[in-house]
Amino acid sequence: MIESAADERLQKASTQFFSDTGVMALLCHHDHVIYLANMTSAGERQHYALALIKSLFGHLPYNFHIGLLYDIGCQLEQSCRKWGFLKSFLPHISFAISLIYHPQKCEGFGLSDGEGCEQYATSVSS
Question: What is the pLDDT of residue 118?
């Protein structure tokens, strides 16, 4: 599942027939939607996640720290460090992945299982 999510060449929705190919959501710890982004290009591109995170930090105090659960969070963190994305916010982010960096084993995530976004997507599509 992580490999297919990380493979930007894999096209899951056609841009030939639809202008939007999906939705990316940023949810709080209580699984309430904070931001939504219409995805207009095929594949799971990092710029959607970067835009959502940047928008979130625009409304938080500078000293705020967030825990970010994302299925390809390790890849996003590497890109941020390598290319300088979210440079000023990076010290204020703890990355976790529900499969590898289990959130219940990371400080500050409590009993989160990281499945809120999956449940939200299922409820929206049904």
Answer: 65
**Total structural domains in the chain?**
1
Question: Could you give the maximum distance between any two Cα atoms of the chain, in Å?
Answer: 44
DSSP 119: H
Asked if 6 and 75 touch (Cβ cutoff 8 Å), the reply is yes
Query: Which two tokens mark 44?
Result: 């799971």
- Mean pLDDT of all residues in 11-38: 75
So what's the pLDDT on residue 6? 45
The torsion angles phi and psi of 22, rounded to 5 degrees, stand at 170, -175
C-beta separation of 24 from 34 below 8 A: no
Task: Quote the DSSP letter at residue 33.
Answer: E
Give the N- to C-terminal CA distance of the chain in Å, as an integer.
Answer: 21
Distance CA 64, CA 16 (A): 42
Residue range of the domain that includes 56: 2-125
Please tell me whether the overall predicted TM-score, pTM, comes out greater than 0.85 for this model: no
102-122: b or e for each residue (b if 16 or more CB lie within 10 Å)? ebeebeebeebebebbeebee
